[in-house]
Design a protein that fits this description.
This protein has 17 helices and 18 strands. The protein is an alpha/beta fold and about 500 residues long. The strands form two sheets. It has an eleven-stranded mixed sheet with strand order 1-9-18-17-16-15-14-13-10-11-12, sandwiched between helices. A hairpin with a 2-residue loop joins β17 (about 415-420) and β18. The longest helix is centred in the C-terminal third of the chain and has 27 residues, at about 455-485. It binds ligand NAX and potassium ion. In the C-terminal section; belongs to the NnrD/CARKD family. In the N-terminal section; belongs to the NnrE/AIBP family. This is Bifunctional NAD(P)H-hydrate repair enzyme. Its cofactor is Mg(2+); K(+). It catalyses: (6S)-NADPHX + ADP = AMP + phosphate + NADPH + H(+); (6R)-NADPHX = (6S)-NADPHX; (6S)-NADHX + ADP = AMP + phosphate + NADH + H(+); (6R)-NADHX = (6S)-NADHX.
Length: about 500
């Protein structure tokens, strides 16, 4: 699903209004009706107090339409106008009249702190104060109003965006932003919904299609893309019946050191469970029995050294090399990694200490094969590209880095971001149970397993992150966030694939 900027959304609105020969008020009615349908589906006519806070722009206009539709269905609705300016939008005004005609009363005008209404714990608050039109931080009593709503512990549903949240920048410390429990957003999610610094304002999120111009949407270059089930299905290559293990490639997993052989077991298991035809590990001697015992399906090559990698020598013709898990940063390991980088033309996946070595010995970066997949978590990324001021600055810096180095960066997080050239892909699977030792090792193995099966590195990264998250979700369903461990994510990869395929047969929509 495409993620558009506020100006792209405004353009889409305008083109839709023109091409569909409708008024902007019609579009507002359409959008707000979608919101009403969602609310009605969930509340089913329940008699709880619904308190709707409307601004005076089009976000407020949406709120007024939602209020009218709820009133028409006999909900217990109270409408408050957060009257921060007299500059009311035309569509707000005509819906303001419609509310008056229906309820025979003007909604309550709020003009300052003294007007704040009572909000109780069980109230259902709808935030329609500001949407994508926000262009400066909230000030004065309006900021206080937002803080007041946040402090109320009522359930808050934000319309389009939590009020106070910008679509293109991070709020400053102390800025007032609605902390929504749920956000119903129009047509396209906004980038800030997925950034670590702003995602907590959004709560759970659902996108409502409001029928914007299809042609415009299909042609526009998005600022990022959200990867759900449908997108992942489109990336999947079905297997040919007439095939053998040679068709699915050979992964070489190189890494490990004394006490850290488990990371190799995890990555290698994941590569095989993702469908690699063959997996060979290259490890220090101390890991020989561990890997042979834990994973009889893997083949094992050992370094001359007992504790660490010092000389990765093999004439094995692997299709992809996965390097770095548990490998440490000894000088001799750095040297052999350097040699490996210089010699190999194979696609590579580099994780963990492999990344730390690249950060410490920057000169190695020039030897990375094109389209190498780097899989840092934020700390590893920071070592690699330096500090950033906020999440938008981070995105800019990653994009500069990948442009210079011609690599793919998989930035792990609650929403993992995949950066390739100008493109950003944001993953929508996964859960907090995946914050557990070794889950990154599993991800590297999954991506390598897909590359070995001839997926392009970018496709392998995007599909791999999706499947890894899905397997994490399946593991969490079975074992809970606390109980799942990363070995479960590797073990359940098959279920993640079957989930993908069963949905494909049903033709279901992306999540
Ligand atoms: N354009 C359309 O046709 C549609 C718009 N829709 C709704 O319209 C929203 C955008 O509406 P608007 O562009 O009117 O903008 P908003 O309703 O988000 O904001 C209203 C106005 O407030 C002013 N403002 C910005 N920051 C402020 C601040 N800190 N303090 C005081 N005033 C401030 C701006 O002049 C802005 O235009 C969307 O988020 C969505 O909810 C939907 O109805 C769908 C269709
Ligand atoms: K809002």
């Amino acid at each position: 699903m495409k993620i558009l900027t506020a100006s792209q959304i405004k353009e889409a609105d305008e083109i839709t209004i023109k091409n569909q020969n409708i008024s902007s008020e019609d579009l507002m009615e359409r959008a707000a009706t979608q919101v009403f349908n969602e609310i009605h589906k969930r509340l089913q006519g329940a008699d709880l107090p619904v308190k709707i806070f409307c601004g005076i722009g089009n976000n407020g206009g949406d709120g007024l339409v939602i209020a009218r539709l709820l009133m028409e269905h006999s909900y217990n609705v109270k409408v408050f106008i957060v009257n921060y300016s007299d500059n009311r939008s035309p569509d707000f005004l005509s819906n303001y009249d419609k509310i008056k005609n229906l309820s025979h009363n003007w909604p309550e005008l709020l003009k300052g702190e003294d007007d704040f209404p009572e909000i109780n714990r069980g109230d259902f608050v709808i935030d329609a104060i500001f949407g994508i039109g926000l262009n400066r931080p909230l000030e004065g009593w309006v900021a206080k109003m937002v803080n007041f709503l946040n402090a109320s512990s009522a359930f808050i549903l934000a319309i389009d965006m939590p009020s106070g949240l910008f679509s293109d920048k991070i709020p400053e410390e102390g800025d007032a932003v609605i902390m929504a429990n749920f956000t119903l957003t129009f047509q396209t999610p906004k980038l800030v919904f997925f950034l670590p610094e702003t995602m907590e304002f959004v709560g759970d999120m659902q996108v409502l299609e409001i029928g914007l111009d299809r042609d415009f949407l299909s042609k526009i270059t998005p600022s990022a893309q959200l990867i759900g089930r449908q997108e992942a299905q489109n990336l999947y290559n079905p297997r040919n019946k007439n095939s053998h293990k040679g068709n699915y490639g050979h992964v070489l997993v190189a890494g490990g050191s004394y006490g850290k052989i488990g990371s190799i077991v995890l990555a290698t298991t994941a590569s095989l469970r993702t469908g690699a035809g063959l997996s060979t590990v290259f490890i220090p001697k101390c890991g020989y029995e561990i890997v042979q015992t834990a994973l009889p399906e893997a083949m094992v090559l050992t370094d001359a050294n007992y504790e660490m990698l010092t000389d990765i020598k093999t004439d094995l013709d692997a299709d992809v090399i996965c390097f770095g898990m548990g490998v440490g940063r000894d000088k001799s390991t750095v040297e052999t990694f350097k040699e490996l980088l210089k010699e190999t033309k194979k696609p590579m996946v580099i994780d963990a200490d492999g990344l730390n070595i690249l950060s410490e010995y920057n000169e190695l970066l020039q030897h990375l094969p094109e389209n190498t997949v780097l899989t840092p978590h934020p700390k590893e990324l920071q070592r690699l590209i330096g500090e950033w001021t906020d999440d938008f600055d981070k995105i800019r810096k990653v994009q500069e880095f990948i442009k210079k180095r011609k690599v793919i960066v998989v930035l792990k997080g609650a929403h993992t971001f995949i950066f390739e050239q100008e493109n950003i892909y944001i993953n929508n699977t996964g859960n907090p149970g995946m914050a557990t030792a070794g889950s990154g090792d599993v991800l590297s193995g999954v991506i390598a397993g897909l590359i070995s099966q001839k997926y392009e590195p970018l496709v392998a990264a995007v599909l791999g992150v999706y499947l890894h998250g899905k397997s994490g979700d399946i593991s969490a369903e079975k074992l809970g966030y606390e109980g799942m461990i990363s070995g479960d994510i590797a073990q359940n990869m098959g279920l993640a694939f079957s989930d993908l395929l069963s949905e494909k047969e049903n033709g279901a929509r992306a999540d």
